[in-house]
């Protein structure tokens, strides 16, 4: 329990320190993404092949579940074990970044009402993040072996930051065009109900915004 809390709250604290020192939300989120990438590098560096470690543990869990009358999920081990490192790291990073955003929002309520909304609508992780994501995409697609798997896992972590930027883009465009709040509510409902389809589109939107900065164009 202590280790689990340390893994979660340490990056939250580090992101908060970055935010305090730089007063820039983008750099705080970049710090959280970087932490996730470090976790993936450690997983591959320490385990060699994290998928094998996940497969062994998933087989044990699924066997115990089946012995108690649960469904037989053994056929899913190969697919799940391949992506568990990426999913676990990306899930952790998402929780960390949402905690940072929530803390920033609470702070704005106390000291700068309305300030968080303006800051979030301007969120942009920057061209280097977009280029790095594209490099990881190409590496994951063309490279074989451990390097390709690491790149694909890293891309999922970076996509978490781009997803939040995509949401910032939607908020900014809705604000600029004075759209009803119902548009944003519908978006979040879609994200909850069809996250596997909507989240990649939002991450792609965030990626494109780093390349072409069309939020500024929309405001002109």
3D architecture notes:
By secondary structure, the chain is mainly alpha-helical. It has helices spanning 2-22, 25-47, 50-67, 77-111, 115-121, 127-142, 145-176, 181-193, 195-212, 214-219. Helix 2 runs antiparallel to helix 7 (145-176). The chain is globular, with a radius of gyration of 19 Å. The model has no long low-confidence stretch (mean pLDDT 89).
SSE order: HHHHHHHHHH
Mean pLDDT metric: 89
Please tally the β strands and state the result. Answer: 0
In percent, how much strand structure appears in the residues? Answer: under 5%
Keywords:
single chain, 220 residues, mainly alpha, 10 helices, 86% helix
Short structural summary:
The chain has 220 residues and is mostly helical.
Blueprint of the fold:
Layout: H1 2-22, H2 25-47, H3 50-67, H4 77-111, H5 115-121, H6 127-142, H7 145-176, H8 181-193, H9 195-212, H10 214-219
Helix pairs in contact: 1-2, 1-4, 2-4, 2-7, 3-4, 4-7, 6-7, 6-9, 7-9, 8-9
């Amino acid at each position: 329990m202590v280790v689990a809390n340390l893994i979660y709250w340490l990056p939250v604290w580090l992101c908060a320190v970055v935010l305090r020192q730089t007063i820039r939300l983008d750099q705080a989120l970049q710090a959280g993404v970087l932490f996730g990438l470090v976790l993936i590098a450690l997983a591959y560096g320490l385990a060699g092949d994290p998928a094998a470690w996940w497969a062994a543990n998933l087989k044990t869990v699924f066997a115990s579940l089946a012995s108690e009358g649960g469904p037989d999920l053994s056929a899913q081990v190969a697919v799940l074990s391949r992506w568990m490192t990426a999913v676990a790291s990306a899930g952790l990073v998402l929780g960390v970044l949402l905690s940072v955003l929530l803390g920033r929002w609470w702070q704005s309520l106390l000291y700068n009402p309305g300030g968080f909304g303006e800051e979030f609508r301007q969120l942009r992780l920057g061209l280097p993040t977009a280029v790095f994501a594209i490099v990881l995409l190409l590496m994951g697609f063309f490279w074989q072996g451990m390097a390709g798997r690491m790149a694909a896992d890293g891309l999922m972590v970076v996509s978490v930051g781009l997803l939040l930027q995509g949401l910032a883009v939607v908020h900014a465009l809705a604000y600029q065009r004075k759209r009803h709040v119902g548009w944003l509510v519908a978006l979040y409902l879609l994200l909850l109900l069809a996250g596997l389809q909507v989240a990649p589109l939002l991450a792609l939107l965030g990626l494109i915004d780093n390349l072409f900065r069309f939020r500024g164009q929309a405001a002109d």
